[in-house]
Automatic annotation (TrEMBL):
Species for this entry: Solanum pennellii
Region annotation (VHIID) ranges: 266-331
Domain of life from the UniProt record: Eukaryota
Family listed: Belongs to the GRAS family.
InterPro entries registered for this protein in UniProt: TF_GRAS
Keyword Transcription assigned: yes
Coiled-coil regions listed in the entry: none
Chain positions covered by the region annotation SAW: 485-559
Gene field: LOC107020922
Residue window of motif VHIID: 297-301
Name of protein: Scarecrow-like protein 13
Motif annotated as LxCxE motif, chain positions: 175-179
Alphabetized UniProt keyword annotations: Transcription, Transcription regulation
Length: 559
């Protein structure tokens, strides 16, 4: 997800972003999902209370319980868990909601703890599918090859899968395609390393391509959510095969949009999904509360985008009793934001200066036209006497970590920020685990996560809506293809679950800052405009935004 493409201010678009907290009636408390329905007061044992808010939700990994933390190596910790604040069997408490019903899952794994933690669980899923479709006795061994009573070879396995491929649903086909691709890759890699004498067989490649051809007949970018998602995941698989994942537009057979087109596509998502407003509103409330008694404020935004977020903050600061503080904003840029704006950061500075002048807030803007990986102390224009707030909106997962480079910009940036002694740091990230996962595990996680996202998008616009199709193709599909097709430095979409972010921040010297009820109240007010299938929950120091039973994004504060 890229906050860099949030619409510029124009009329009603920005009025949707933030509303005064005095208008919100719901009380927000830890371990409960905020509920707009005051009549929902029942509880049931040990399940987590939740509120259905709207029919949009990104699928990502759920927050790890402390009991599920494991350390793979000193520099690269790993957190895996089936825990989710929205999964009834995994959560702390439950409050029924009149909007919640058994059809909320659309037949997807969103109704429970659906995270695939490792290759063994993925093999179990594939084994179960094989047993159901191919009959008892068909199995998958530890090397991901298949055996039938110990005698069936890989080619025979794929021949049998191909026989029943037309009867598979799209999820089963996607998993079969991914495993077939993995088989070819593993064989080719082992042969290259002289581990095996055998080379990739024509039968393996033929089976892989045949499965993808079957899937291609079922997908549609204007169909149901699963058809649309499958279309883009199929493009990701193709891009992986042809090693062209870094060129998403080529693989999607569409030209790169102009800046104005990209902005219009993001405006569509901005209106029908609350994910960006979740990020901006929660951060604004946290920062405003932290800076309540400060007369000079410096905000470093590591993805300034169009700067819309700060227009609303300055409007709120202008109403402060005794007069507004002076506001100094440092905006870090990226190439995609500049493309969407149609110009450099000076456009953001000019726009924010006008907004500040209109509400009487003393203002100064500093442009840092570099990516987050390139940021150093000298780029941040630090000044003595200014209270510092740092904002990370859906951006830290783009920073390469120790698994990509020895420089480890992800942790380096956190240590740099800590050295500045900020009064508050806000972090909003997608709740997914795709950073260091192997291909098959990562594929399954991506399938689960974006199943929920596409369901949520469908709640806002019909399947054949051309604006929605363009928005998905240019603003969502590129991320999907990058996750599936790319490896190493080319894979920039490297999400981590909140438990891992918490570890990184703690190791950098930060401590969590509890969120006040005002944050949940503000987000709850935003969600009133969307489907009741959106849910909000707070747990373990983070605020979770979910679609049905899937946590998709988290917001947290640190100091």
């Amino acid at each position: 997800m890229r906050a860099s493409q949030i619409p510029q201010s124009s009329g009603g678009v920005h009025k949707l972003c933030h509303q005064p907290t005095t208008n919100f009636e719901q009380y927000y408390s830890p371990y409960h999902v905020v509920n707009n329905n005051s009549s929902d007061t029942s509880s049931s044992g040990t399940q987590l209370s939740y509120q259905t808010q709207n029919e949009k939700f990104f699928t990502l990994d759920s927050l790890p319980d402390a009991g599920y933390v494991s350390y793979d190596s000193p520099p690269a910790v790993s957190v895996s868990s089936n825990w989710s604040p929205f999964s009834p069997q995994c959560s702390q408490s439950y409050i029924s909601d009149q909007h919640h019903s058994s059809d909320n899952t659309y037949g997807s794994p969103l109704s429970g703890c659906s995270v695939i933690n490792d290759g063994n669980e993925l093999k179990h899923v594939l084994r179960e599918m094989a047993n159901n479709l191919l009959g008892p006795g068909f199995d998958i061994d530890e090397d991901s090859s298949c055996s039938f009573n110990g005698e069936v070879s890989k080619p025979s396995k794929w021949n049998r899968v191909l026989e029943i491929a037309p009867s598979l649903d799209m999820k089963e086909l996607l998993l079969a395609c991914a495993e077939a691709i993995s088989d070819v890759e593993v064989t080719a890699r082992d042969a290259q390393m002289n581990v095996l004498e055998q080379k990739v067989s024509d039968a393996d490649v033929t089976a892989r391509d045949a499965l993808m051809n079957v899937l291609e007949q079922k997908v549609s970018v204007s169909g149901e959510p699963m058809q649309r998602l499958s279309a883009y995941m199929l493009e990701g698989l193709k891009a992986r095969i042809y090693s062209s994942g870094s060129n998403i537009y080529k693989m999607l057979k569409c030209k790169e949009p102009t800046g104005s087109e990209l902005i219009s596509y993001m405006q569509v998502l901005y209106h029908i999904c609350p994910y960006y407003r979740f990020a901006y509103t929660s951060a604004n409330v946290v920062i405003e509360e932290a800076m309540r008694n400060e007369s000079r404020i410096h905000i470093i935004d590591f993805q300034i985008a169009q700067g819309s977020q700060w227009v609303f903050l300055m409007q709120n600061l202008a109403r402060r009793p005794g007069g507004p503080p002076s506001v100094h904003i440092t905006g870090v840029d990226d190439s995609q934001s500049a493309h969407a704006r149609g110009g450099g950061l000076h456009l953001v500075g000019e726009r924010l200066a006008k907004a500040a002048a209109s509400c009487g807030v003393p203002f100064e803007f500093h442009a840092a036209a570099i990516s987050g990986c390139e940021v150093h102390l000298e780029n941040l224009q630090m000044r003595h006497g200014e209270a510092l707030a740092v904002n990370f909106p859906y951006v830290l997962h783009h920073m390469p970590d120790e698994s990509v480079t020895t420089v480890n910009h992800r942790d380096r940036l956190l240590r740099l920020v800590k050295s500045l002694s900020p009064k508050i740091v806000t972090l909003v990230e997608q709740e997914s685990n795709t950073n260091t996962s192997a291909f098959l595990t990562r594929f399954r996680e991506t399938l689960d996560y974006y199943t929920a996202m596409f369901e949520s998008i469908a709640a806002g616009r019909p399947g054949d809506d051309k604006q929605r199709i363009n928005a998905e193709a240019h603003c969502v599909a590129r991320d999907i293809v990058n996750i599936i097709a790319c490896e190493g430095a080319d894979r920039v979409e490297r999400h981590e679950v909140f438990g891992k972010w918490s570890m990184r921040l703690t190791m950098a010297g930060f401590t969590p800052c509890p969120l006040s009820p005002s944050v949940g109240e503000a987000i709850n007010g935003v969600l009133k405009e969307f489907s009741p299938n959106y849910r909000l929950a707070e747990s373990k120091g983070a605020l979770y935004l979910g679609w049905k039973n899937r946590a998709l994004a988290t917001s947290s504060a640190w100091r």
